[in-house]
Design goal:
about 575 residues, mainly alpha
Length: about 575
């Protein structure tokens, strides 16, 4: 536990004792870091850029290869500069001040090193790097506050963060702002999960166009639809029914003509005529729907008549190859009984499968034809719409999880040593599928329920629907995903505020946030390494060639953070306790 007074205490040790105990020369320590980081950084960014090139899905041109090669060199230079500058600035500040202070141990030199490093990197990659380190720094700061007992851990806190952030993004998506004001690739992921029908503007435009067409267009399209349906029905119905419908159609046309003449004569009759037209349009829609249902029912009955009944199929299956002829009479009675027994077993299985398929078809038809609200953008029933979305994403999640597991154990797969049943068929394989499928199902079901409840569709429905659907995140809780979505939401809304004139544009804010976040991570690595994410500690250990493990922190225990003990624990946790300094120049 630290306090304000202890933070002001100077630590009178040399940079050799803390920064580079493996060599007395500051420049040798920086040179060794450069040599190691060149090889390690080039490996990292070669993989990153090559994967990015392959994901384009096309054969790269000479221009693409040239840009990829230059990008690898530039990004490698960024990471090398960031690493070696930290050692250089730590030594410079120690020599200028004559001693170490709490904020000059790691934070100040890391901030300056990050500033030099991010300037080397390509401007297009700076926002991505900023979001990445801001994500890690947020988690690290939270763990720092928990270790100081300033806050208490919140159960399902990552789910709450994910739900609030996703709800805001879904609201923007529902309003259609992602098409112009708030463009971001994250909305493509949301579009894949919740579907095209929930996309903003598209739904509203479709409904508005339908209403406008119903009010302004003539009766020609309506009459054509009726005549097409009547022609289909006339094959099975009497001419009397058709004449009755045609008479109703003529009466409606006469009534519409009469209403149009009244509209031209008197303005007071306009309202009455519009009301009659609206009623006629409703009646037309109802009648068209009834005719369509009648036509579909006749189609189903015709197909059933064309097919054999189950009894005919069973009888035909029973008689294939087992007719009573002269050769069969000479067969042995025992073989005939055995054959009949096998035949009955086959018939039972066939009948069982047929019954199951018939039940499935009936259930699917029933679900498809269940009602939906007129403001719902989908074509089938709401239950079918929600279930299909959930099952589709459930399958996608399982497929991705299995593919990742196989890719991470590709060596065992090649050697045929992988236990597929243990690797694939386990609870962990279902987690991503349950999250994606559950999120899609809950969001669509909630949206449809709200449309039924309020009688309309509204972008505000995305807020409660997003919170409800985020319950599925409990099946796949991940702090990294939750914080990434949160920072993306903040970035998008901040940019929207700037475009709208509500927020000022801060020059260099992305660079400043990157430097502050990276400095926080280096400060935690030096004094509170247990608050770091273990994967990031392993990255620091790998990219520094083991130098971050060999820095002597025992003199800083005066601050009450037990820094040396924390280093021992994190090294044991990440298996980096036996690392040696790479390129330890004397």
């Amino acid at each position: 536990m630290t306090n304000a007074q202890s933070k002001c205490l100077p630590i009178k040790i040399t940079c050799h004792e803390y920064v580079h105990p493996w060599t007395e020369s500051c420049w040798n320590s920086a040179a060794g870091q450069i040599l190691h980081s060149l090889g390690n950084s080039s490996k990292i960014y070669t993989i990153v850029y090559m994967l990015s090139l392959l994901m384009r899905g096309r054969i790269p041109t000479a221009r693409d290869l040239q840009r990829t090669f230059l990008g690898i060199i530039q990004s490698t230079g960024f990471l090398v500069t960031n690493g070696c500058s930290y050692l250089i600035f730590a030594c410079i500040l120690r020599n200028l001040l004559g001693e170490f202070y709490f904020w000059t141990i790691a934070y100040a030199p890391a901030f300056l090193a990050s500033l030099f490093g991010i300037i080397v990197e390509r401007p297009t990659r700076r926002p991505l790097l900023c979001l990445y380190v801001a994500n890690l720094a947020t988690e690290t700061i939270w763990r720092m506050t928990v270790s100081r007992n300033l806050v208490q851990p919140i159960k399902y806190g990552e789910t709450l963060i994910f739900g609030l952030s996703t709800s805001v993004l879904l609201y923007l998506f529902k309003r259609g702002l992602h098409k112009n004001i708030a463009k971001d690739s994250l909305f493509n992921v949301l579009k894949f999960v919740v579907g095209n029908d929930e996309e903003g503007n598209k739904t509203n435009d479709r409904i508005e166009n339908n209403i406008q067409n119903n009010n302004n267009n003539s009766n020609s399209s309506y009459q054509n639809q009726r005549r097409a349906l009547l022609n289909n029905i006339s094959n099975n119905n009497s001419n009397q029914n058709i004449n009755n419908i045609d008479n109703n159609e003529n009466n409606e046309n006469n009534e519409n003509d009469h209403n149009e003449n009244d509209n031209n004569d008197n303005d007071d009759d306009d309202t009455y005529a519009d009301a009659n037209n609206g009623d006629n349009e409703i009646n037309r829609d109802i009648e068209l729907e009834q005719l369509q249902q009648q036509h579909e029912q006749q189609q189903v009955e015709r197909r059933r008549r064309e097919l054999d009944s189950p009894s005919d199929l069973l009888r035909r299956y029973n008689n294939i190859g087992y007719g009573n002829n002269d050769d069969d009479e000479e067969d042995d009675n025992q073989q005939q009984l055995s054959r009949n027994s096998n035949n009955r077993n086959g018939l039972n299985k066939f009948q069982l499968i047929s019954n199951l398929l018939q039940i499935y078809e009936n259930i699917l038809k029933m679900v498809k034809t269940m009602p939906k609200h007129k403001s719902c953008p989908h074509s089938n029933g709401c239950l079918y719409y929600s279930l299909c979305g959930g099952l589709k994403l459930f399958g996608v999640g399982i497929g991705v999880q299995v593919a990742l597991k196989l890719a991470l154990q590709i060596q065992k797969v090649i050697q045929f040593k992988l236990k597929l049943r243990k690797t694939i068929f386990n609870e962990g394989t279902l987690k991503l599928g349950l999250f994606l499928g559950g999120f899609s199902f809950l969001y669509k079901a909630s949206s449809c329920s709200l449309r039924h409840l309020f009688g309309k569709d509204d972008p505000l429905f995305a807020l409660p629907a997003g919170l409800i659907s985020s319950v599925a995140f409990t099946k796949y809780p991940d702090v990294t995903i939750a914080l990434y979505v949160m920072w993306k939401m903040l970035q998008i809304t901040y940019n929207m505020g700037i475009k709208a004139g509500y927020l000022p544009k801060v020059p260099g804010f992305t660079i400043f946030l990157y430097c502050a976040s990276t400095a926080t991570l280096f400060h935690a690595a030096a004094l509170e390494p247990e608050t770091l994410r273990p994967s990031y500690w392993k990255f620091l250990s790998s990219n520094s060639g083991g130098r971050v493990n060999h820095m002597d922190r025992r003199a800083f225990d005066v601050y009450g953070l037990n820094s040396h003990e924390q280093v021992m624990k994190i090294q044991k946790l990440t298996n980096t306790d036996n690392s040696k300094v790479s390129f330890a120049l004397g």
